[in-house]
Design goal:
The protein has 345 residues and is of the alpha+beta class. It is built from 13 helices and nine strands. A hairpin with a 2-residue loop joins strand 6 and strand 7. Helix 3 (37-45) packs antiparallel against helix 4 (50-77). Bound molecules: phenylalanine (PHE).
Length: 345
């Protein structure tokens, strides 16, 4: 070991400048690393003559302290947070894009409709998908021999007793449960999945989604029903929308009607979406049958109400003009990605 070696290092370290943390790290390795110049001198120290050890030892320790202090000073000066090992990554590199999911079109439509009825003061009620005959049919005034009670139309989970379990065919069952347990007046919408034993095609599916609504209070009239539906239709399809009601039949409402909205594509002139009529059918509705109120313990002399129900896929078809129902259930990403921007709105 020669004194000049130590002085050479001191001279060099005195002059040393680093532009980045990377250069500081390189300097640290060069002087203090396992094979660094200072480390090497410490190894050589073992062979130094005993009478010189004291002096060289002191000088070497001073050298190490000087070099360490200088490296620390350079590291602080080079900025970038002074991380012990400097930045490992190239921060200017483009990042990995996030895979953005999107809402399903049926969910978009459901949220829109629920949002409109919430503004009107309706609550949301939910109920079981596996229901009993009582809540799906009996309490809703379906006669015992009604075709909906046939295995051909309804999926039964259990049979052979008075109140068999089945997959609900409409969410009117949730309205029955609401009438049983809620205080009057009742104002609810019931969104949910329903099941019917249908062959799957572009126009029919064995699973689909509904939103049904129920309003019960004193003095509720057909005029209230009509106004509620008109306001809903204008919120949903635009302020110029008109509605018309055609007489219909449901066991649980009397009178009953089908509701059409004016075609917002051709504005009544007739196109292939409205099949030339200028009108699109969107829902069924009616005044709750007194038998239904009675079955759930509500006095039909004092209270009256209206109910309505619509299919979400049907509304989605009108909104986006996707006319094959199967698209809504296949989860083909090419289809679902079409709704990415609709979700962000
Ligand atoms: N429950 C009916 C259906 O599933 C829709 C409906 C609800 C009709 C309420 C009238 C009143 O088709």
């Amino acid at each position: 070991m020669r004194r000049e070696d130590i002085e050479a290092i001191l001279a060099e370290i005195g002059e040393l400048k680093c532009k980045s943390q990377k250069e500081v790290e390189e300097a640290r390795v060069r002087f203090l690393g396992k094979k660094g110049e200072v480390t090497r001198l410490f190894e050589e120290f073992r062979t130094v003559a005993p009478e010189l050890k004291r002096e060289f030892g002191k000088t070497l320790n001073e050298l190490k302290q000087t070099v360490t202090a200088k490296i620390e000073e350079l590291r602080a000066a080079a900025g970038e947070g002074g991380a012990a090992e400097g930045p490992k990554e190239d921060l200017s590199m483009p990042g990995e894009p996030f895979e953005l999911g999107s809402r399903h079109p049926v969910s978009i439509v459901r949220e829109e409709i629920v949002g409109i009825f919430r503004k009107f003061g309706y609550d949301v009620a939910e109920g079981p998908e596996i229901e009993d005959d009582y809540h799906v049919f009996e309490a809703l005034n379906f006669p015992p021999n009604h075709p909906a009670r046939d295995m051909q139309d309804t999926f039964f989970v259990s049979t052979g007793h008075l109140n068999p379990l089945l997959l609900r065919t409409h969410t009117s069952s949730v309205q029955v449960r609401a009438m049983e347990k809620m205080d009057l007046p009742i104002r609810v919408v019931c969104p949910g999945r329903v099941f019917r034993n249908e062959a799957i095609s572009a126009r029919a599916h064995c699973i689909f989604h509904q939103i049904e609504g129920l309003y019960i209070d004193e003095n509720v009239t057909f005029a209230d029903l009509k106004q509620a539906i008109l306001l809903f239709a204008r919120e949903m399809f635009g302020p110029d929308t008109e509605i018309r009601m055609r007489p219909s039949f449901f066991p649980f409402t009397e009178p009953s009607a089908e509701v059409d909205v004016s075609c917002n594509i051709c504005h009544g002139k007739g196109c292939n979406i409205c099949k030339g009529t200028g009108w699109l059918e969107i829902m069924g509705c009616g005044m709750v049958d007194p038998n239904v109120l009675k079955a759930s313990g509500i006095d039909p002399e004092k209270y009256s109400g209206f109910a309505f129900g619509m299919g979400l896929e049907r509304i989605a078809m009108l909104k986006w003009r996707v006319n094959d129902l199967r698209h809504y259930f296949e989860n083909d990403l090419r289809f679902l990605r079409e709704f990415q921007t609709a979700t962000e709105v």
